[in-house]
Amino acid sequence: MSEIDYSELIISKKGVVLSDRQVVGNLIGERGDSIIVEKDGASDSIYLIPKSNVQSYDGQQLIVNVSSSSLEGFEQKREGDGESVLDDISDKMGDIKDKVVETTKDVADKAREKV
Length: 115
Prior knowledge:
Elements: H1 6-11, E1 15-18, E2 23-31, E3 34-38, E4 45-50, E5 54-57, E6 61-64, H2 68-71, E7 75-77, H3 85-114
C-alpha cells in the first residue's frame, strides 16, 4: 500500500470506518503518530487513533483496524477551557490559508510586472 497523504484527507474531512464498516466519524487532523477523528460536530468527544491502526484508504473512507469494543479506548473529551484540539487545528488551517492567499497575490503581482 502506498503512503497515505493525510493532509488531503483532512482537508476534505474524509469518513473513517472500522474494519467491519461501522462509521466512526470524520478525519479532522493529525497529532504526532495519530489521527484525530470527530464523531460529529455536536459531540464533545474525539477519537485519537494511532496511524499504525490505519488499515487502508479506499478512495472514499479511511478504514481503521479497530474493533467497536476497543474504540472507546481511543475516545477523548474535547477540552472545555482554553484551546481545544479543534481550535488548534482551525488556527493552523487559517495560517495555511493566509499563506496561500499571500503567495497567490505575490505570484499575481509578479505576473503583472512582467506584462
